[in-house]
Amino acid sequence: MEKTITINNTEGLHAQLASKLVQVSNKYDVDVRLEYKNVTIDARSILGLMSLAVPKGKNVKVVAEGNDALIAIAEVENILG
User: Tens of pLDDT along 10-28?
Assistant: First the structure.
C-alpha cells in the first residue's frame, strides 16, 4: 500500500517527527518506507529519515507492507500531514 503525503509541519521533517515515525514503524507488523527525490529510506532509521531533509509543503511517498499497513499509513499521515 502506498500514499503520497504533503509535509505540513512548519519545520518540515525534523527530529521529533522522525522519532514518531520510527515509533509507528516499530509498533506494528509492517515495513514502512518514505520516498523523496528518488531516495527511499526505511522508517525505522531516524538518521535516514532526517537525512531526507523534506521541507514544509513537499510531498513524500509512504510505502507500507505488512499486516498493519493500512493503520500504519493512517498514523504516518496523521504525523506528517
Answer: 899 999 999 999 999 999 9
Q: Where are the alpha helices (DSSP H) in 4-68?
A: 15-27, 46-51
Is 67 marked active-site? no
Catalytic residue among 14, 20, 44, 58: 14
Give start and end residues of each alpha helix (H) in the chain.
Answer: 15-27, 46-51, 69-80
Q: Which CATH number fits domain 2-80: 3.40.710.10, 3.30.360.10, 3.30.750.24, 3.30.1340.10?
A: 3.30.1340.10
**How far is Cα 54 from Cα 52, in angstroms, rounded to an integer?**
6
Please tell me the pTM assigned to this model. 0.90
Asked if residue 81 has pLDDT above 90, the reply is no
- pLDDT, mean of residues 53-70: 96
